[in-house]
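Exercise: predict the fold of this chain.
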Amino acid sequence: MEILRSVCPQCGKPSAGLCNECRAAGTEWFTCDPRVETVYCPVCDSRKQGKTWSDTTVDREALLHELAYSALHFHPDLRRPEAEFTFRETSPNRTAVAAEVRGLLYGVPVAGTCTTRIVWVREQCDRCNRISGGYYEGIIQVRATDRRPSVREIDRAAGIAGELETSLQESGERLSFVSKVETTKDGLDIVVGSNRMGQLLAGEIISALGGRLSTHPKLVGERDGKKLYRITFLIRLPRYQRGDVVVSHGRYFEVRSAAQGHLQVFDLQDGTNRVVREDEAERLVGNVGDAERALVAYLDDGVIGILDPKTQEAVECRALPWLHPEEGGSMLAIRDGETGQFVPVG
């Protein structure tokens, strides 16, 4: 009879040393912290990790699982660890967690349970603290030459500010925020949390609406040895905005852009593009954004018959080489308040 020389010293099973079952039974394969603390902002739900704030990118349920799992610590030899959690809110800032944990240790299935507690610590984040304290670094003032910016321009500038704020914060620039958007008698003021955002926003508004920029910095103090400035970014929009219809030398033109005293225009009579001096524009008729849609009643030998959108009376205007309306269709026109005629614009 052959004598077994390799057996487990604890259970006697054949094994070259301690068997896997006995190794697993004698190993503390996981531990559980009794408490997990997380600091969050009650205003915007940002989380603080160490000294750094970051926006929360998961919902509360996913965050609960993330925090509960962080309380577990596994033996380096454990394979395929799994955990199931049950949560119970015991107070507004306490969540009790029961965990069922499983895995494979030395090829042996293991399972256990533990409890922990999530502590929610409220603290106002860096961004909300600045906003509530009225902190700002830049003001973008949107004004216009010899006029007040139109509602369309004000809405567009405010929209650009919102889009840029979202883009910057999604890229991690938490302190690039808009703290106030205010319509004034002269135009629009946008107050921002960083001068970098002010510079970017001013550039995007000018790109969309035209105009020129001047900056006016003011020293307000120092931080960490660096001088702090508040900068006013003054945007002066052109006298005429994109889409304005003007009269020059008896002809109607649609403004496409304006810069340095000149207008890039579209001739609404012959359909050509040209440049005219700003001071050659005799008067403003309106803007294509406010054009009325009129029904085309008939087309007859170079004449377009349309129905006045307000009175439904027939009105005739000259056919244009760049415009190709269809009888029974519609076209856009601006009413010239001085002459009473309709100016086709599209």
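Check your answer against the key: The two ends are 107 Å apart (CA to CA).
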